[in-house]
Amino acid sequence: MFPTAPTNRGLSAKKPPDETETTTTGKEIVNTWFKGLMAIRSVGSGVFRRGLFAVGSICKGDFVVEYRGDLIDDAEAERRRKVYHPSCAAFFFLFKWIGKTWCIDASREDGSFGRLVNDEHRHPNCRMKKVEVEGSPHLCLFALKDIKDGEEITYDYGGNDCPWRIKNITHPAKSSHPAVMSEKRMEEAPSPQDTPQQMTLCAIDTHPAKSSHPAVMSEKRMEEAPSPQDTPQQMTLCAIDTHPAKSSHPAVMSEKRMEEAPSPQDTPQQMTLCAIDTHPAKSSHPAVMSEKRMEEAPSPQDTPQQMTLCAIDTHPAKSSHPAVMSEKRMEEAPSPQDTPQQMTLCAIDTHPAKSSHPAVMSEKRMEEAPSPQDTPQQNHQMRKLLQVLWGMKTQQASNTDAQQQSMAHLLESILWHIPLKNHQQRKLLQVLWGMKTQQASNTDAQQQSMEHLLESVLWHIPPKVKLHRKKHPGRQQRLGR
Ligand SMILES: C[S@@+](CC[C@H](N)C(=O)[O-])C[C@H]1O[C@@H](n2cnc3c(N)ncnc32)[C@H](O)[C@@H]1O
C-alpha cells in the first residue's frame, strides 16, 4: 500500500544493508513514490519547463525518486526512436545491465516524478543507480549531498551532447535551442563518491540477473499486475461511480457549453477522421509536430484538427516487428505496485484539501506551480482537443503505438492548460485516460461514467464564449439584432 507519511524516505546510508536486505529494500524503493515529498514546478517555458523540487529536506545517501518507464532492450529503443518525435528521446535512459544495453523509456506522461528531473552536470545533487528487484533493473536517484527544502532535484545525464550544456544554458527557460534531445546514459562502474550503501546497490547491478531472457522480465511484470477482478482502474471507477449524486457539479454539458462543443456534424471522431483523411499530405516534414509546436502552447490560430493532424501525421507506424517486450503490453499494464491511477485515486478519494494525508500531488503543491496564462482561445482549443483525443482514444485499437504516444503528449499539454485551481479535474483526467487505455475490460456502464466524468472535466476548462461576450457586449446591437 501507499506510504502515508514521509517516514520511509529512503535508504539512509547509515546502515548498509546486506545483500538480502538490499533486495527487500530495493523493492521498497520501487514501491514508493514518496508522495508529499516532491513538487513539480516550472523552471521556464515550453514543454520541457518542468522540474522536480524537494519538499522537505533530503539527506545525503537517501533514495529520492525512481526513474520509471518502460523497460525495453536496445533494439526496441532504436525502433521507438525512429517513430517517436525527437523530443521523446529526452526521456530515454540507456544503461548497461547484464552485459546488454537497456533503456527505460519514460516518454509516456504517466504522472511519475523521476522523468521530470533535469540535468545538472556541474553540481548535481543526485546520482542515478541501478537497483535490481526480482530480476528487473530499476533506475533510482539517490542524494549525493544533503538537499534542502525547495531545492531542485538534479543529476548528471551523462554524455557531452546536451545542447543546453554546450550553450552553457542552465534551464529550459533560458534555452533558445530547440528540443534536441540527448538521451541519458549510465556507466556501470560506481563512482568514487558512492556511499557504502550505494556501493552495495551498484554491486547488485553486476550480479547476473536471475533471468537473462528479456521476455521473462516482461512475463514477470505481467504476472505481478493486479488481477482482472480487482484492477486499480476498477476500484477507481467504483469510487467515482458511487459519487455522482453527491456532486453538486452538473455532469451534463449545459446548453451554452454544447454550443461550444463540436456540433453533431463535427464530432471528435469525425473531426479526427476528417483531419486524417483529408490532410495527410500537408506536411512534408516527418516531424509535423514541430519543435516549435512542442515548445509553445498551441497558438490561437491552430484548430484542434490541425493539432490532431500534426500528432497523427508525424508518427506513421513503420515497424510491425514484435518487440521483445511488446510496447503495447508494457504500456498498458498497470504497474503492480502503484500505478498513477492508484495514486490519483488516492488523491481524489482523500480530498486533498480536507485531508492531512500527503496525496500524490497535494493541492498545495499543485498550486505552487505557476499558472499557464492561457488565453480564452487557447482554453477553448484545449477543450476541443481533449474531445478529439478522447474520440481517438475510443478507437485506440486502430491507433499505432506512435499515435498513442503523441496522444499522451497532447494530453499532457491539455493537463497543463486546465487551471491549477481545478487540480482535481486534472487528476481526474489522468485517471480517466488510464482507464480508457484499458477500455476493452471496461463495462458499458463504466464507459458511460467515464464519458460523464470527461464532460465534468471539460466543464472546468474555462470556456471561450463567456469571456468573449464580456469583451463584446454590444455586438448584437451593432448587428441590429
Ligand atoms: C527528462 S526531461 C526533464 C523534464 C523536463 N524539464 C520536462 O519538463 O519534461 C529532459 C528535458 O528537459 C530539458 N532539460 C533538462 N535539463 C535541462 C537543463 N539543465 N537545461 C535546459 N533544459 C534542460 C531538456 O529539454 C531535456 O530534453
Helices and strands in order, then pairings?
Elements lengths: L18 H13 L6 E5 L7 E5 L8 E5 L2 E4 H10 L8 E6 L2 E6 L12 E2 L6 E8 L2 E8 L10 E2 L7 H4 L17 E3 L9 H11 L7 H11 L7 H10 L13 H6 L7 H11 L12 H5 L8 H10 L13 H6 L7 H10 L13 H6 L7 H19 L6 H17 L5 H15 L6 H16 L4 H8 L3 H4 L3
Parallel strand pairs: 5-11, 7-10
Antiparallel strand pairs: 1-2, 3-9, 4-6, 5-6, 8-9
Bound molecules: S-adenosylmethionine.
S-adenosylmethionine binds next to strand 2 and strand 7.
Query: Number of helical segments?
Result: 19
What sort of overall outline do the alpha carbons produce when their principal axes are compared? globular
How many domain modules? 2
Strand content: 5-15%
Quaternary state of the chains: single chain
Strand order of the largest sheet: 4-6-5-11
Q: Level of helix content?
A: 25-40%
- From the alpha carbons, calculate the radius of gyration and give it in angstroms: 23 Å
Let me know the largest β-sheet.
4 strands, mixed
Amino-to-carboxy terminus distance = 62 Å
- In the predicted model, the low-confidence regions spanning at least 5 consecutive residues are 1-36, 172-181, 189-374, 463-481
Structural class: alpha+beta
Mean pLDDT across the residues is 54
Ligand inventory: S-adenosylmethionine
User: N-to-C SSE series?
Assistant: HEEEEHEEEEEEHEHHHHHHHHHHHHHHHH
